Amino acid sequence: MHSGFLCRSISVIAAFAALAAVAAEPGPAKPRAAAPAAELSLTDAIVLGVVEGVTEFLPISSTGHLIIANEVLGLESEAPLTDAAGAPLWYKQPSPEHPAGVPLTLKIAADTYAVVIQIGAIAAVVLMYWPQFVNMLLGLFGRSSAGFRLLRNVLLAFLPVGVLGFTLHDLIDRYLFSVEAVIAALVAGAFLMLWAERWRRQNAGIGYSKGTPEDLSPRKALGIGLAQCLALWPGTSRSMVTIVGGYLAGLSPVKAAEFSFLVGLPTLAGAAVYKGYKSGGAMIEVFGWSSVLLGGAVAAVSAALAVRFLVTFLSRNGLALFAYYRLALALLLAGFYLF
């Protein structure tokens, strides 16, 4: 991945960010069907975009950081929202299944927003790793054996979390999405990273970390996918468990991270589409389109920078520093929410 290509990619994404910012600026009054119920400020949209873009691909848990960001920005309110006329806004209209209905709240909209703007981060990785995507496409049509193997391994690594995540999504949201669960996952993940880093360094001397993502056997790719299922527990970090899984499968830190980026795309895209389908309309009703476009564009720029940083950092230092950061974040969350 050449720095010139990275700069061009960021320039393209930054242009979209500028367009979104212009769209968010107040202009001449235009008629519209309904005004947003609680439109995000430019600052809020930028902060959430940066937090999402930076933390999505670093092994530090985007969930933990978004909890803090939403709390600081005052987006955790569960008070029912109303329109300009004072009529209630509904997340789920009253029905035989939900006789009282489910009121639309700021928290529901903010949680959806954080997932949907992942599309910007996805776009950044696609641009930065475009040659690998072209190679996988060639492999799909039988024109590149290496591209076919890489595509096979990405799909095998995605399959377990795709099936399990779709099956358990509602249960996870209902029972595991808590500050206590996130803190426990941050701590457990930190110790797993420290162990994995020690294991990698012990085995590096015998040339263990010499493989590439396309060289992984189907069994090892599926093993990384099973490890990724751990990230369904909020606060674990999908990036962290796939990098650790890559270590154990014989990948170097850089190759493990790059495979993590590729494997993460169908996972993130699936989550964004599913969340957008379920509550995207509610999010737009609360925040409006301009805030969503701006957040996605900022997430793209910050994700591109975070990916480049992680690849460079891991090539020299490994995972240990991120593990200590996770422990510090867990202490911060515990001190703020539990004491």
Supply the key terms.
339 residues, mainly alpha, 72% helix, 2 strands, two-stranded antiparallel ribbon, globular, single chain, 13 helices
What's the structural blueprint in terms of helices and strands?
Elements: H1 3-24, H2 42-57, H3 62-72, E1 90-92, E2 102-103, H4 106-116, H5 118-128, H6 130-140, H7 145-175, H8 179-204, H9 218-228, H10 238-248, H11 253-287, H12 289-317, H13 320-337
Antiparallel strand pairs: 1-2
Question: What's the quick description here?
Answer:
The chain has one domain. The protein is mainly alpha-helical and 339 residues long.
What does this structure look like?
- This protein has 339 residues and is mostly helical.
- It is built from 13 helices and two strands.
- The protein has helices at 3-24, 42-57, 62-72, 106-116, 118-128, 130-140, 145-175, 179-204, 218-228, 238-248, 253-287, 289-317, 320-337; strands at residues 90-92, 102-103.
- A two-stranded antiparallel sheet has the order 1-2.
- The model is unreliable at 8-33 (pLDDT under 50).
Q: Describe the main β-sheet briefly.
A: 2 strands, antiparallel
| Coarse shape | globular
Structural class: mainly alpha
Percent of residues in helices comes to over 70%
Work out the helix count: 13
Report the portion of residues in β strands. Answer: under 5%
H/E element sequence: HHHEEHHHHHHHHHH
Strand order, largest beta sheet: 1-2
What is the count of distinct domains?
Answer: 1
Low-confidence stretches: 8-33
Count the strands?
Answer: 2
Radius of gyration: 21 Å
- Roughly how many Å apart are the termini? 45 Å
Mean of the pLDDT scores? Answer: 86
